[in-house]
């Protein structure tokens, strides 16, 4: 079987490199850290940022990212409610929650009600972010 390379998009050939990522955190430092981590690992070609859940919802609808990395505790609309809204809009949304909150009930809320696919605790190292995003992109590709 021959593969017509001209018909394949760059995203198909390298889904990690050419994915779109929405980073949601009320801390500009965390957003920059996550973006730099992913960029250094050559994951993502477009990054969108939101500083609260309300902005996250509108940016998700506007840009339809492949992965969303969402903080839980934020002003205006928190990560649980934002994840629920995004998941309602797109049941296939790949949401990774990243938070310092180690409360088991909150984690369960985000996973069960908000549809989060993975969870990373702050402070986190770069490898945890890279692994979680990679896993979601690769799993998404094979579905």
Would you mind describing this structure in some detail?
The chain is built from six helices and five strands; from the N terminus they run H-E-H-E-H-E-H-E-H-E-H. The chain has one domain (about 15-140): Rossmann fold, CATH 3.40.50. The longest helix has 16 residues, at about 125-140. Strands 2-1-3-4-5 form a five-stranded parallel sheet, with helices on both faces. The protein has helices at about 10-15, 30-40, 55-65, 80-90, 105-110, 125-140; strands spanning about 20-25, 45-50, 65-70, 95-100, 120. The protein is an alpha/beta fold and about 140 residues long. The protein is globular, with a radius of gyration of 15 Å.
Which CATH architecture is right?
Answer: 3-Layer(aba) Sandwich
Query: What amount of the residues lies in strands?
Result: 15-25%
Strand order of the largest sheet: 2-1-3-4-5
Helical content stands at: 40-55%
| Shape designation | globular
CATH fold-level assignment: Rossmann fold
- Outline the biggest β-sheet: 5 strands, parallel
Separate helix tally: 6
Q: Specify the CATH homologous superfamily.
A: Response regulator
Which regions contain 5 or more consecutive residues with pLDDT less than 50? 1-11
């Amino acid at each position: 079987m021959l593969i017509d390379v001209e018909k394949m998009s760059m995203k198909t050939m390298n889904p990690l490199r050419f994915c779109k990522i929405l980073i949601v955190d009320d801390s500009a430092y965390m957003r920059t850290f996550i973006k730099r981590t992913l960029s250094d690992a050559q994951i993502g070609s477009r990054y969108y940022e939101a500083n609260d859940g309300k902005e996250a919802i509108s940016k998700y609808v506007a840009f339809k990212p492949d992965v969303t990395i969402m903080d839980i505790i934020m002003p205006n609309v928190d990560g649980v409610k934002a994840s629920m809204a995004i998941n309602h809009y797109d049941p296939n949304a790949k949401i990774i929650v990243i938070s310092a909150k180690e409360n088991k009930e909150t984690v369960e809320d985000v996973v069960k009600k908000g549809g989060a696919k993975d969870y990373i605790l702050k402070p986190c190292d770069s490898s945890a972010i890279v692994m979680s995003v990679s896993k979601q992109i690769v799993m998404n590709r094979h579905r």
